[in-house]
């Protein structure tokens, strides 16, 4: 019996935890891992379920359409890995090529960008973008005259630089929002002074999204050579950004709920040029580990081992869900 269970697990056997594995085709582990995080983002699946695609069933090059189909397949109770070749070929048609190594954060942004461009329901497309949209304001303060120039923009993920020793997620976040002095060749033109002057540049938060994606920038280019930083980054299961980033909020920030809970971790193992992606995903208050076709139950202690500081699996992207005002069950998929 145990041998049979191991065999079914290897095939991607799906039990009551509600996850299906995905076969690895032509180095598709990066896409497989992102699909597991998208599947766990039930808010995204609910929005795609509302999209009427009756007139688009044969559009093999439409990324949101093929994503909707594969997410539906991943929710089914079939015991074998979910079919997703059509989605992989769709990405290939949209210049996310098969058979090459990809960066998970870049593919994540590409998929969301293609969804904005290819969905005919622009209202739903904007709602999908708003799931991840981090509204920020860049402030540039002239040191000579104290005048301030501002620019409002947004991020889809929070890109955090890490130090080559021990880091905490809170320290990395606070470093991102710290003001930096720009002098010498980095001076910017001050509209008030009419010339390039030394200044202080910083980023302020205007609004936080329902889904907070954090990108730990582990790959660094040094003299034309890309290497991976395996240093430790300690991240918690829950975040209270009103405490952690109090100084980063703009004067216009009016959001009350800044508490988040971790529900997915994109993991990279190996070096910068030859690696493998897997994912830890939280379903129904339990953690599961997805390695292509194999999905198995795990624990928070196993997730903690991805902090880094060694040559094993290291966390690369973190997905946090904003807590509901009233504590209750996770959102359920419709349809």
From TrEMBL:
GO terms for cellular component: cytosol; nucleus. SUPFAM superfamilies: Cysteine proteinases. GO terms for molecular function: cysteine-type deubiquitinase activity. The keyword Protease does not apply. It comes from the Eukaryota. Keywords: Hydrolase. PANTHER family: UBIQUITIN CARBOXYL-TERMINAL HYDROLASE (PTHR24006), UBL CARBOXYL-TERMINAL HYDROLASE 18-RELATED (PTHR24006:SF796). This is Ubl carboxyl-terminal hydrolase 18.
């Amino acid at each position: 019996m145990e041998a049979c269970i191991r065999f079914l697990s290897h095939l991607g056997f799906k039990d009551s935890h509600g996850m299906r594995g995905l076969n690895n085709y032509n180095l598709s582990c990066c896409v497989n891992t992102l699909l597991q995080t998208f599947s766990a983002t039930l808010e995204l699946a609910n929005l795609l379920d509302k999209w009427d695609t009756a007139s688009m069933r044969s559009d093999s090059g439409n990324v949101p359409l093929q994503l909707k189909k594969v997410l539906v397949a991943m929710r089914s109770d079939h015991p074998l890995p979910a079919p997703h070749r059509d989605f992989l070929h769709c990405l290939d048609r949209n210049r996310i090529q098969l058979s090459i190594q990809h960066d998970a954060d870049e593919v994540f942004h590409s998929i969301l960008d293609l969804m904005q461009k290819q969905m005919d329901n622009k209202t739903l497309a904007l709602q999908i973008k708003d799931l991840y949209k981090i509204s920020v304001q860049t402030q540039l303060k002239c040191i000579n005259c104290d005048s301030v120039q501002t620019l409002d923009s947004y991020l889809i993920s929070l890109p955090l630089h890490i130090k080559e020793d021990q880091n905490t997620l809170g320290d990395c976040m606070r470093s991102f929002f710290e003001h930096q002095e720009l002098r010498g060749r980095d001076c910017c033109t001050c509209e008030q002074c009419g010339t390039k002057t030394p200044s202080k540049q910083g980023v302020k938060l205007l609004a936080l999204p329902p889904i907070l994606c954090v990108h730990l920038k582990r790959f660094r280019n040094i003299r034309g050579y890309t290497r991976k930083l395996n240093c430790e980054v300690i991240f918690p299961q829950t975040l209270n950004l009103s405490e952690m980033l109090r100084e980063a909020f703009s004067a216009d920030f009016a959001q009350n709920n800044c508490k988040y809970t971790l529900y997915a971790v994109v993991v990279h193992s190996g070096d910068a040029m030859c690696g493998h992606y897997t994912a830890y995903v939280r379903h129904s208050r339990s953690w599961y580990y997805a390695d292509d076709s194999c999905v198995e139950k795990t624990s928070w202690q196993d997730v903690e081992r991805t902090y880094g500081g060694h040559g094993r699996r290291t966390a690369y992207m973190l997905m946090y869900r904003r807590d509901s005002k009233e504590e209750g069950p996770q959102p359920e998929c419709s349809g």
